[in-house]
């Protein structure tokens, strides 16, 4: 209590002190406080402006790198692009002018990098603490690519995809695939496309459309080698009822050999041909979207036949046999990326090659799975095709395993196998794959 009374008395004396020494001391303290506050405000302004500049420049460089990658702009347009982006995203709140300034832009054609430096002058709230407005400067860099990308999407149009009262698998697939196509082709020069996409719908077989000329239509059951294509359109005289193909039989069953080596069989036991035709590589979004929009869920699941034709549409061996503009390029790790996206909603269960004449072709899960895995392994090893797989509402362990086996090996930054439990997850899987394709184009 005594200590409290003494403290109270001392405080009272200090408050009543009117001596000159204390007044001077008070002025010094006030000045120091003002200096501290002013300096703190100036530092906060500089930090805020630098943060805004960094975000704007990072976004500008990243966006410009992507446009260079897709071919939407040429190298000589890059500076104008970065400047426009900086101007649109300038935050003049603490700057002396209403925009950020691009100081330096360097494009390294060898390293495929774009580097930029930008600055802004800080409009200080307390300029008394600085002789002139200080400048904040930021540098940013991004990688771009001029690599050509070929993407073939194998999509399940079997009966199990049909819409019912609890789900609409085929509708979900159409939505996800259409979004993927639009994203892949967005922003590129249509006259000089860097990315092309192919579609392979499959069920019991694959409808080859304009490529049916290279299909050997069997009139009787056979296990022998298909003939080589000689340039004669055999379909016109074969009496065939459709344009579908099953597996290629014989020694070239698991190769990407051209039709000049061996045509592809159409087994005589095939009873159903899907309506929608495959679409070879193209940058025409309307054509691809039209193919996807025509999907109809029918038939059984010969997944390995879909994989086989996905491979053909990415193989340079077939370049001379595909429509103009759809020819796959020769694989080159630095210049050409080949991507396959394989999707199914169930067990592969239908096969024809190496199946006895009196056997039920729609009850061959072991055969179809084995052929699928062999084809996937050959695609990855021999053709250097990067494979992404999606299991859509899969419940069977065998169905999941074949998709896992077909997928390329994961890396620390890229996932290759996806499971989707519903339509939203299917769209997310396609979205993730598109992002990974963009990443691979920049890093490989």
TrEMBL record:
<keyword id="KW-0472">Membrane</keyword>
<feature type="domain" description="VWFA">
    <location>
        <begin position="150"/>
        <end position="433"/>
    </location>
</feature>
<dbReference type="Pfam" id="PF00092">
    <property type="entry name" value="VWA"/>
</dbReference>
<keyword id="KW-0812">Transmembrane</keyword>
<dbReference type="InterPro" id="IPR002035">
    <property type="entry name" value="VWF_A"/>
</dbReference>
<feature type="transmembrane region" description="Helical">
    <location>
        <begin position="21"/>
        <end position="41"/>
    </location>
</feature>
<keyword id="KW-1133">Transmembrane helix</keyword>
<protein>
    <recommendedName>
        <fullName>VWFA domain-containing protein</fullName>
    </recommendedName>
</protein>
<dbReference type="InterPro" id="IPR036465">
    <property type="entry name" value="vWFA_dom_sf"/>
</dbReference>
């Amino acid at each position: 209590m005594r200590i409290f009374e003494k403290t109270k008395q001392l405080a009272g004396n200090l408050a009543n002190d009117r001596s000159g020494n204390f007044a001077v001391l008070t002025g010094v303290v006030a000045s120091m406080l003002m200096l501290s506050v002013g300096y703190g405000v100036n530092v906060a302004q500089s930090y805020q402006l630098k943060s805004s500049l960094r975000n704007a420049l990072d976004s500008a460089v990243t966006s410009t790198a992507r446009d260079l990658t897709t071919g939407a702009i040429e190298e000589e347009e890059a500076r104008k692009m970065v400047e426009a982006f900086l101007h649109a995203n300038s935050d003049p709140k603490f700057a002396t002018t209403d925009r950020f300034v691009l100081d330096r832009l360097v494009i390294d054609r060898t390293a495929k990098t774009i580097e930029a430096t930008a600055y802004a002058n800080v409009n200080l709230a307390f300029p008394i603490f600085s002789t002139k407005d200080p400048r904040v400067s930021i540098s940013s860099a991004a990688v771009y690519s001029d690599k050509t990308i070929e993407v073939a999407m194998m999509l399940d149009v079997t009966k199990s995809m049909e819409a019912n009262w609890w789900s609409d698998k085929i509708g979900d697939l159409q939505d996800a695939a259409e979004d993927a196509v639009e994203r892949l082709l967005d922003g590129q020069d249509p006259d000089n496309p860097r990315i092309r996409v192919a579609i392979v719908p499959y069920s019991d077989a694959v409808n080859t459309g304009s490529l049916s000329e290279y299909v050997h239509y069997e009139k009787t059951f056979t296990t022998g080698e298909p003939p080589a294509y000689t340039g004669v359109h055999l379909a016109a005289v074969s009496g065939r009822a459709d344009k579908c193909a099953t597996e290629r039989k014989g020694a070239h069953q698991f190769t990407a050999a051209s039709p000049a080596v061996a045509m592809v069989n159409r087994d005589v036991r095939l009873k159903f041909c899907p309506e929608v035709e495959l679409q070879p590589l193209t940058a025409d979004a309307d054509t691809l979207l039209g193919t996807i929009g025509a999907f109809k869920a029918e038939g059984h699941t010969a997944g390995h036949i879909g994989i086989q034709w996905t491979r053909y549409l990415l193989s340079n061996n077939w370049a001379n046999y595909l429509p103009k503009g759809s020819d796959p390029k020769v694989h080159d790790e630095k210049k050409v990326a080949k991507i396959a996206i394989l999707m199914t909603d169930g067990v592969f269960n239908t096969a024809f090659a190496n199946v006895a004449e009196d056997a039920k072709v729609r009850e061959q899960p072991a055969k179809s799975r084995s052929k699928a895995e062999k084809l996937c392994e050959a695609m990855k090893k021999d053709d250097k095709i990067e494979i992404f797989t999606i299991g859509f509402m899969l419940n069977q362990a065998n169905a999941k395993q074949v998709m896992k086996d077909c997928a390329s090996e994961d890396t620390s930054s890229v996932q290759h196998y996806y499971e989707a439990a519903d339509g939203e997850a299917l769209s997310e899987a396609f979205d993730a794959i598109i992002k990974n394709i963009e990443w691979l184009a920049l890093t490989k």
